[in-house]
Design brief:
Layout: H1 2-9, E1 12-17, E2 22-28, E3 31-37, H2 41-49, E4 52-59, E5 63-67, E6 81-82, E7 86-90, E8 94-98, E9 102-103, E10 109-114, H3 120-124, E11 129-135, E12 139-144, E13 153-157, E14 175-180, E15 185-189
Length: 190
């Protein structure tokens, strides 16, 4: 019976980090474009370099490019059609962000693609531009607890203030410290 009560009274913290997809933000000035990195050796190597800010040069009225200081693994192919929002690698070190759709005979290795290209061409403009590529970590946290008063949960912000709302899903994004009734503490990133 004690074991059953202990199991019921135990707190469970489930943190799910979206590891299946490598999500990034492509930031141009004040505009942010969500993107998904391809699960390829090229995509993973690029993702591992982030955050990365590149001064990208204009080329052909349809792309911005920048040569990296290092080479990435390649798996070249000829896509035939380049789509606005494609993030590709030319050769082994030239990152290319396309903002127009067109046919091409060149070979590239896929890094990934923007999820939504609305406003991309305007944000990139007609000249050289600075573009930041940064990781996105999506964390969802749920705390389940028995209603036993001996197993209270206290949530604190990083300044040590007690947060009145114990429902993490309703709190703003940030870092919180959760203190359990058994004295255990955990850092939760939301």
């Amino acid at each position: 019976m004690k074991r059953v009560i202990a199991i019921i009274a135990t707190l469970f913290v489930f943190t799910q980090i979206n590891a299946e997809e490598m999500k990034i933000n492509v930031i141009v000035g004040s505009k942010t474009f969500p993107a998904t990195i391809s699960d390829t050796s090229t995509g993973r190597a690029f993702y591992d370099m982030l955050p990365l800010t590149l001064d990208m040069n204009e080329l052909n009225g349809n792309e911005k490019y920048c040569y990296l200081d290092t080479s990435l693994p390649t798996a070249s192919y000829r896509p035939g059609t380049i789509h606005a929002g494609d993030l590709l690698l030319y050769g082994s070190s030239c990152v290319v962000l396309f903002y127009e759709t067109f046919s091409s005979g060149y070979s590239y290795s896929r890094i990934g693609a923007l999820d939504n290209v609305e406003g991309l061409a305007d944000a990139l403009g007609s000249g050289n531009v600075t573009v930041t590529f940064d990781r996105v970590t999506s964390v969802e946290t749920t705390i389940h607890a028995a209603s036993d008063k001996a197993n209270k949960v206290a949530i604190f912000d990083l300044q040590g203030h007690l947060v009145q709302n114990s429902e993490l899903s309703q709190l703003p994004k940030g870092v919180y410290i959760v203190k359990y009734g058994n004295g255990e503490t955990r850092k939760i990133i939301k």
